[in-house]
Design brief:
Shape: globular
Largest sheet: none
Helix content: over 70%
Mean pLDDT: 90
Distance between the termini: 26 Å
Low-confidence stretches: none
Radius of gyration: 11 Å
Order of helices and strands: HHHHH
Length: 79
């Protein structure tokens, strides 16, 4: 099972904390997030009502060069 699948599943089923822990683990393992990862992480932030955390993720998204992606933009609005 891929990292993205697991993070998305946790996020979809309102387990935001687990999704974010898995995201951090993924990064520690040297895996690079893609736009699918970021959409799930932003959804996890919205379940946790974590606007400050969402802002940090948004900054990371910009740093990675995904800020102009429509799907990520939609996830940001939903957050």
């Amino acid at each position: 099972v891929s990292w993205n699948s697991m993070i998305a599943a946790y996020s979809k089923h309102e387990h935001g904390e687990e999704a974010l822990k898995l995201f951090q683990w993924m990064q520690r393992e040297g895996m690079r997030p893609d736009k699918v990862t970021f959409v799930s992480v932003l959804d996890a932030c919205s379940w946790l009502e974590g606007l400050p955390l969402g802002k940090m993720v948004h900054a990371y998204i910009i740093e990675r060069g995904f800020e102009l992606d429509v799907v990520i933009g939609t996830a940001l609005v939903r957050m």
